């Protein structure tokens, strides 16, 4: 029985990954069943069936030494120091997957971003991107066989961020939807279930390529994303285009930054990512029963106070 460690395991991506391996999906996973461990502080509800290793990622010490994990999936590791704590804490390292970020690509590079491009600071994402990049580099030095995945915007079940769920709420309330500019800003997405599928594939295939951009081949924009969310509820948005100089994060859940990843290398291994609308249906099915699990932001308050027209 393979032992799998997921760092985190209680919120969105790490929770979904932990539940994925607990439930074991035969057509995509390796042949053996998995014994799933999660490493977190034990302050949130745990996935049913996992083995909790209760510790802070910044104070791991010897808490992992007695385990010999076959696979480590590092999700909530954001800095070089956190990566060092994790690697120092492991008794041995076999298969290792790090969920990094597309924020490692400077916005000044030509698009679409490819894995071979020289990474560096992105002024939109700031320290988040540079810290992820430092963690990547440190991991590569210590564990050359490790895999690094760089996703764009992730969505799907267990998403605690108020993104697609905000648009669902607008549709439910039959509100006008305020779109930054003409709505043509690029948005690239990746369904969290596909992230798990791709992890399964690379663990089975063991490709020579170690860094992968992951994401949908199709590039959406604000308009197509909003309309897809509304269609999930059988509706269509009444769009109001906003051309005023208003910080869009006050009323819209994405930064004023459109970008595109080249996912050719991923598609060579996984050619059938989940279509956006299909993934959104899964996301809404979860959200309709778990609204309190989402960290909602006061977009409605801002819109009603400063933007709504009579």
Short description:
This protein has 310 residues and is an alpha/beta fold.
Keywords:
single chain; 310 residues; alpha/beta; Rossmann fold; 2 domains; seven-stranded parallel beta sheet
Explain what the structure shows.
The protein is built from 9 helices and 13 strands. It is globular, with a radius of gyration of 20 Å. β5 (95-99), α3 (127-142) and β6 (147-150) form a beta-alpha-beta unit. It starts with a strand and ends with a helix. It has helices at residues 12-23, 80-89, 127-142, 164-173, 192-205, 222-232, 264-269, 276-287, 299-307, and strands at residues 2-7, 34-40, 51-54, 71-74, 95-99, 147-150, 153-155, 177-180, 186-187, 189-191, 211-213, 220-221, 239-242. The chain folds into 2 domains: 2-154 and 191-213, NAD(P)-binding Rossmann-like Domain (Rossmann fold), CATH 3.40.50.720; 161-188 and 217-259 and 274-307, Alpha-Beta Complex (UDP-galactose 4-epimerase, domain 1), CATH 3.90.25. The model is unreliable at 26-30 (pLDDT under 50). The chain has 310 residues and is of the alpha/beta class. It has a 7-stranded parallel β-sheet. 32% of the residues lie in helices and 16% in strands.
């Amino acid at each position: 029985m393979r032992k799998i460690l997921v760092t985190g395991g209680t919120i969105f991506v790490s929770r979904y990954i932990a539940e994925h391996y607990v439930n074991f999906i035969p057509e995509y996973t390796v042949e053996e069943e998995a014994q799933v461990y999660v490493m977190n502080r034990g302050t949130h509800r745990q996935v049913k069936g996992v083995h909790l290793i209760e510790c802070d990622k910044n104070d791991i010490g010897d808490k992992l030494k007695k385990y010999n994990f076959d696979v480590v999936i590092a999700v909530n590791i954001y800095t070089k120091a956190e990566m060092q704590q994790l690697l120092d804490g492991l008794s041995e390292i076999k298969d290792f997957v790090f969920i990094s970020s597309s924020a490692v690509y400077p916005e000044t590079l030509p698009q679409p971003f490819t894995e071979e491009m020289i990474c560096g600071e992105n002024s939109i994402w700031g320290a988040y991107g540079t810290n992820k990049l430092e963690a990547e580099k440190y991991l590569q030095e210590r564990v050359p066989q490790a895999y690094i995945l760089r996703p764009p915007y992730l969505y799907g079940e267990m998403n605690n961020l108020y993104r697609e769920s905000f648009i669902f709420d607008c549709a439910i309330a039959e509100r006008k939807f305020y779109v930054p500019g003409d709505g043509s800003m690029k948005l690239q997405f990746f369904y969290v279930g596909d992230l798990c599928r791709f992890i399964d594939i690379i663990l089975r295939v063991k490709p020579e390529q170690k860094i992968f951009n992951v994401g949908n081949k199709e590039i959406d924009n604000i308009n197509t994303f909003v309309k897809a969310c509304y269609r999930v509820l059988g509706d269509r948005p009444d769009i109001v285009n906003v051309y005023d100089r208003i910080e869009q994060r006050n009323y819209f859940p994405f930064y004023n930054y459109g970008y595109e990843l080249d996912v050719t290398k991923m598609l060579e291994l996984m050619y059938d990512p989940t279509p956006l609308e299909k993934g959104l249906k899964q996301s809404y099915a979860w959200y309709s029963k778990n609204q309190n699990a989402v960290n909602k932001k006061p977009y409605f308050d801002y819109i009603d106070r400063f933007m709504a027209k009579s």
